[in-house]
Design brief:
By secondary structure, the chain is of the alpha+beta class. The chain contains 16 helices and 34 strands. Bound molecules: guanosine-5'-diphosphate.
Length: about 600
């Protein structure tokens, strides 16, 4: 009892403090006067005034002299960008017992904005390796290559950019363990940088930033770090978890640091596979070589692939006749994370197809036939739309409505995002997978497909490629010109209280050829009907290039001098859209009606 009491008396009082304290703050916390603190500091050889900040170590010494232990708060748990849920690529070794799993090289993809140096960086790393390496410098592009750092291999996917990255993912392939995000130090975070971040985060792949072109006189690393923090990648020297490595692909500096960072992240991610089982993985690319026949690059992700193996790759089959590494050197076996170019497949598989070794050629042919039938039966991926997105997410246990938001300007994007965030309820989360200004691109649709999202556009259009892919992959794109309508739509999806659903369909397209100002009527666009029809009881959309200028009801429709109810293809006509007065020749008009979705 006595002993306990004594212990209590002498146990220092523990106070949690912030790392940046002034003399005045410290006095307040320790229950004494600033003068007392200044005196104590002086006896410890530190001269300070009342408003001066003192470092944590010094504060601790002063605290202990006054019988208090000063502690910094526990660090925040590392955010999901590094320690997210297990990515699905681990499915490749799901069947394996733990003791058979050994560390395999990480597979790295290079993403980033155009011209920031992705290709240069891939080349620089490859050349640095070849110069010191065995293969006499003859390299071939086979879709991936390996390099060695401190006796540890690293596999680089050779097709940079998030389109390739996400196209693979949208096909179900999970090839990448780590993303290197290339950001030019003289240009900073750009739209495609943010896109790449969204793609990598959605795939739950850790990101390392290569701050490239550091050799440039106008490089501004601090500004880029600021932008990275704003984009959700706080550098580790700023208290975050993202490694930011200054490099110059051109001068070949910083490359070793980058490789070191990759090995560190790989160790942390504990990337394993079982080399003793039969080979399986993903087709990276494939083509027909005039003299050699079908050549395919396979990335082995589990097991070992050997010459003579009977392989199924999507709907292609064959006995492997030869295998080569990226230097064109014949190899007999390929272990996990090794890319090999193989000969012997019956037909050209698709990039992103999964492959595996079958027991015999006959079995391989049967499996390929099953794959063929499945592919024929499948009309495309199941649609994700406002009506089913909710139940799909609920089925997975996490009710989430995934959205990709594209808007014309930052000024409209911000209020949309703020208001969308407010729509989350304890039961359903509205998750913004990606948001950016600009038109809806193919890359947005790819991301939607990989993340099961809906794409919402505000005052923007989807370009042709995006529309085609959305149709093929059954991705819903909704375009709006009024913020509250957009919000209303999301809100009703969240609440699951959808009434009859209407879909806007375009029934005709016209081109503005002349503009007239008519007294009392405002502006009339003299237009030519390119296809379909224009109706008076309908809405119209005006777009200029990729930018949507206006959407609203048709207020007048005239053919020659007469008011008409509709105009058909091949005719000239005049159309007024209420107060809209900013027509320009060349603008495209689309006429739209609402149709109830059955
Ligand atoms: P990508 O579009 O991201 O693949 O970019 P590229 O690799 O094609 O590089 C774009 C341009 O930037 C090229 O003209 C390169 O020579 C240049 N570049 C790439 N890396 C560096 C670098 O480290 N320093 C400088 N000064 N220029 C670079």
């Amino acid at each position: 009892m006595m002993a306990d009491e004594t212990a209590e008396k002498h146990a220092p009082r523990v106070i949690e403090v912030s790392p940046d304290l002034t003399v005045r703050d410290l006095a307040g916390l320790l229950g004494t006067t600033p003068i007392e603190i200044i005196k104590l500091l002086m006896t410890n050889g530190v001269l300070a005034n009342i408003n001066q900040a003192i470092d944590h170590e010094t504060a601790q010494i002063i605290g202990s002299e006054l019988g208090c232990e000063l502690r910094l708060p526990e660090p925040e748990p590392e955010p999901a960008e590094v320690l997210g849920p297990q990515p699905e690529w681990r499915n490749f070794n799901r069947e394996e017992s733990d003791e058979k799993l050994i560390i395999r090289p990480p597979v790295v993809a290079i993403l980033g904005h155009v011209d920031h140096g992705k290709t240069s960086l891939l080349d620089a790393i490859r050349k640095a390796n070849v110069a010191s390496g065995e293969a006499g410098g003859i390299t071939q592009h086979i879709g991936a290559y390996q390099t060695t750092h401190n006796n540890k291999k690293i596999t680089f996917l050779d097709t940079p950019g998030h389109a390739a990255f996400t196209a693979m993912r949208a096909r179900g392939a999970q090839t990448t363990d780590i993303v290197v995000l290339v950001v030019a130090a003289d240009d900073g975070v750009m739209p495609q940088t943010r896109e790449a971040i969204a793609h990598a985060k959605n795939a739950q792949v850790p990101i390392i930033v290569a701050l490239n072109k550091i050799d440039r006189s106008n490089a501004n690393p601090e500004l880029v770090k600021q932008q990275l923090s704003e984009a959700g990648l706080t550098p580790d020297d700023w208290g975050g978890t993202t490694m930011v490595i200054p490099v110059s692909a051109q001068r070949k500096t910083g490359l070793v640091d980058l490789l070191e960072a990759l090995t560190l992240v790989a160790e942390h991610a504990d990337i394993r596979a079982n080399p003793s089982s039969s080979g399986m993985g993903t087709v990276l690319e494939a083509s027909v070589d005039k003299s050699r026949g079908v050549m395919a690059t396979l990335l082995v992700q589990n097991g070992t692939l050997r010459i003579g193996d009977a392989v199924v790759a999507g709907t292609a089959t064959g006995k492997l006749k030869a295998m080569f590494d990226e230097n064109g050197t014949p190899v007999r076996a390929a272990t996990p994370s090794t890319p090999v170019s193989v000969l012997g497949l019956s037909e050209v598989p698709h990039a992103g197809d999964l492959f595996h070794v079958a027991a015999s050629e006959k079995e391989a042919r049967i499996i390929a036939q099953v794959n063929k039938d499945a592919r024929k039966a499948k009309t495309g991926p199941e649609a994700v739309n406002m009506e089913n997105v909710f139940e799909r997410m609920s089925a997975s246990g996490i009710p989430e409505l995934n959205l990709i938001i594209k808007a014309d300007v930052q000024g409209s994007l911000e209020p949309i995002l703020t208001n969308l965030e407010k729509l989350s309820t304890p039961e359903v989360r509205v998750r913004i997978v990606h948001s950016e200004t600009g038109y809806i691109s193919e890359s947005d649709v790819l991301l939607a497909s990989a993340s099961q999202s809906i794409v919402l556009g505000f005052n923007v259009q989807a370009d042709q490629a995006a529309q085609r892919l959305a149709q093929k992959d059954n991705i819903t794109i909704k375009l709006h010109t009024i913020i509250y309508r957009l919000l209303e739509e999301v809100e009703s999806a969240v609440r699951g209280k959808l009434g009859p659903v209407y879909q806007q369909v375009v029934i005709g397209k016209a081109e503005v050829r002349a503009i007239f100002k008519i007294p009392n009527m405002g502006f009339i666009a003299g237009s030519y009907m390119l296809e379909g029809e224009f109706r008076r009881n309908a809405r119209a959309r005006v777009s200029r290039g990729k930018q949507m200028m206006y959407e609203g009801p048709v207020s007048s429709l005239r053919h020659e001098k007469d008011d008409v109810r509709e105009v058909r293809q091949g005719f000239e006509f005049g159309v007024g859209l209420g107060d809209f007065d900013a027509f320009e020749t060349g603008d495209v008009l689309e006429c739209m009606i609402n149709e109830q979705v059955p």
